[in-house]
Amino acid sequence: MLIPISNMARDYAWGSQTLIAELQGREPSGEPEAEIWFGDHPGSPSRVDDGTGRPLDLALSEAGLAPLPYLLKILAAATSLSIQAHPSREQAAVGFAREEAAGIPRDAGGRLYRDENHKPEIIVALSDSFRALVGLRPIADTQRLLAALGERAGVVALAAALTPTDAEDESAALRRVIGWALSGEASDVVTDLAAALDRSVGAGRSDSDFAAETAVLSEIAGAFPGDPGLIVATLMNLVELRRGEALFAPAGVLHAYQEGLGVELMAASDNVLRGGLTPKHVDVTELLQIVSTDSGPAPIVEPIEVAPGVFGYDVGVPDFRLARVETTFEAVTEIALAGTAIVLATRGDVVVEADGQRVELVPGTAAVVAAASVAIGGAGEAFVAQPGA
């Protein structure tokens, strides 16, 4: 099987009005375009462009193929997504069984576990710069950021709250502060923190060690006035990826993409627990059960050239594997497949061949491949998603 697939852009409010249109070489729609899904996920299955218009899940089923264990996306952010974390497979199974037994509809706004799967995810930057908040930085670094913001009462209170007690290690202190922030008890701190950030940015303190963090947090404060997620965001690492660089969000790790265009690959799941910067339901108790509060550097993934022009992003999960292929007219790259794959073109003109079939792709278009291997030629760039090892 080698069939082109397509889907409509999803118009989430945080989406960019230009980035996906620019990738695809078309005029912007005038509306936010946040994500395009390439896969068989029931929330928005791709259509097969073979003249039938069938959804991909039906096409795979009719061909006797198993559902995809992953979902591939183009993601384009203009403002912050919600802060979120995803459960482990074991946590998801327990939570799903509990909510099923309670009779909570799977499409209910307060439903947390819509399936029994985990949802690790990786994102690779397509834009020259892609900003994200991911993971929790060491408390000492956050204390230095807060010290640079001045002596407002709320800022001082947050710094004091972050100091571990004699009975706590750093992880326990961060968990306590996240719970305190999201419980609604820290509204005055949110107000003072937002004002201090605004003043710092307005003063043009670009020489600060935390100038980039302060600018991003100030934007968040303006976009989500009064949202306690501002405190959580203040505890997180700011990452700025360059094109081709990636970050990985395993189970429990807080993350919130901020701005830029990327290719995202994740396990096929809808399980999301939010930690602020959203009007959606935030279940503080359940978030604190699944979130990782270990501090440290952001989980950056360095691409490894596994063959000429083929760069792998290995994160060691069974659900998916991702590779970036840089193609030229002089050579054709062949990639062995461990299951049904999706090839997504992101630059130039890409030619995909498998089992005697051929598809030509331009940026922002994709094809599904069910074969032992796939050959990629032309002159451009493509991403290949397939099941993991």
Overall description:
- The protein has 389 residues and is α+β, with helices and mostly antiparallel strands.
- The protein is 26% helix and 30% strand.
- The protein has three domains: 2-132 and 241-286 and 297-301, Jelly Rolls; 138-233, no CATH class; 308-386, Jelly Rolls.
- It is built from ten helices and 20 strands.
- Helix 4 (139-148) runs antiparallel to helix 5, helix 5 crosses helix 7 (187-202) and helix 7 crosses helix 8.
- The longest helix is centred in the middle third of the chain and has 16 residues, at 187-202.
- It is globular, with a radius of gyration of 22 Å.
- The model has no long low-confidence stretch (mean pLDDT 95).
What overall geometry do the principal axes of the alpha carbons give? globular
What structural category characterises the helix and strand content? alpha+beta
Q: How many structurally independent domains?
A: 3
Q: Number of helical segments?
A: 10
- Determine Rg (CA atoms, Å): 22 Å
Q: Specify the CATH architecture of the largest domain.
A: Sandwich
Percent of sequence in beta strands: 25-35%
The main β sheet shows up as: 10 strands, antiparallel
Which stretches are poorly predicted, pLDDT < 50 over at least 5 residues?
none
CATH homologous group name of the largest domain: Jelly Rolls
Report the strand count: 20
Organism: Microbacterium plantarum
Keywords: Isomerase, Metal-binding, Zinc
GO molecular function: mannose-6-phosphate isomerase activity
Cofactor: Zn(2+)
Could you outline the blueprint of secondary structure elements for this entry?
Elements: E1 2-6, H1 19-24, E2 35-38, E3 47-48, H2 56-62, E4 70-77, E5 84-85, H3 89-101, E6 121-125, E7 129-136, H4 139-148, H5 153-162, H6 170-182, H7 187-202, H8 211-223, H9 229-234, E8 236-242, E9 246-249, E10 255-267, E11 273-274, H10 284-290, E12 300-301, E13 304-307, E14 310-313, E15 321-327, E16 333-336, E17 341-354, E18 357-361, E19 366-369, E20 373-386
Antiparallel strand pairs: 1-3, 1-19, 2-4, 4-10, 5-11, 6-9, 6-10, 7-8, 7-10, 9-12, 13-14, 14-15, 15-20, 16-20, 17-18, 17-19, 17-20
Helix pairs in contact: 4-5, 5-7, 7-8
EC number: 5.3.1.8
Protein name: mannose-6-phosphate isomerase
Catalytic activity: D-mannose 6-phosphate = D-fructose 6-phosphate
